[in-house]
Write a structure and sequence with these properties.
Strand content: 15-25%
Structural class: alpha+beta
Largest sheet: 5 strands, mixed
Helix content: 25-40%
Strand order of the largest sheet: 2-1-3-4-5
Radius of gyration: 21 Å
Number of domains: 2
Number of strands: 9
CATH class of the largest domain: Alpha Beta
CATH topology of the largest domain: 60s Ribosomal Protein L30, Chain: A
Length: 208
């Protein structure tokens, strides 16, 4: 497979745009963040030989996250992408072999600094779109070297455990069950759900 750092930036961005659906400043920011993160942890072939060697933790569900997924090939289904809903434009890259990890945060100041590069562009979104492609990494990002502990239940691979909720009967994988007052429960039953059940399919409806 190709070394990602040998592929022209424009090609990587084009692929990301196809995945996301449109070009925006967030796509540019996400592509650059992903390339920086991979470089910091020593991953050069994320979709090929290195695909099982790293994890990515993203902290926001915005445009940049699609770009990070496109560049790295990490995904929720492969269990190589982890979503933490912090509302922060940040991502952490972890090399599973070396344990090296870096958290990269998009600098808020980059919005204003973009004026230094394309002051003739009045529309701020278009200006950021162009500027983020050429601005130095230190103006775009803050980098933190971090430690990340990963449970065996969070690693890629087949489920290590499957248990049945004693209240609703659904099956819970990957150690996400809750032991509450001696009962094994799924998290919706233990903590409350984001949904409200209005009815069950006929085959599952309980009598009485």
């Amino acid at each position: 497979m190709a070394n990602i750092f040998e592929i022209p930036f424009e090609e990587i961005l084009e692929e990301s745009v196809r995945t996301h659906g449109h070009l925006c400043a967030g796509q540019v920011l996400g592509v650059r963040l992903a390339l920086l993160g991979l470089r910091l942890i020593g991953i050069s072939d994320p979709k090929g030989a290195d695909r099982k060697k790293f994890l990515v933790f993203v902290e926001i569900d915005r445009c940049a996250t699609d770009a990070i997924q496109s560049v790295t090939g990490a995904s929720l289904g492969k269990r190589s992408l982890k979503f933490l809903d912090h509302g922060i434009m940040a991502a952490t890259f972890l090399n599973l072999e070396t344990k090296k990890a870096f958290r990269i945060i998009a600098r808020e100041e980059a919005r204003e600094l973009s004026k230094n590069y394309f002051p003739e562009i009045e529309n701020k979104y278009q200006r950021q779109l162009k500027a983020y492609q050429v601005m130095p990494e230190e103006e775009l990002f803050e980098i933190q070297e971090v430690e990340v502990e990963v449970s065996d239940f969070d690693l890629p691979g087949r489920p290590l455990k499957r248990v049945q909720c004693e209240k609703c009967g659904v099956w819970v994988q990957d150690g996400r069950e809750v032991n509450q007052n001696g009962k094994i429960l799924c998290r919706p039953c233990a903590y409350g759900a984001y949904f409200r059940v209005k009815g069950l399919s006929p085959k599952l409806r309980k009598k009485g």
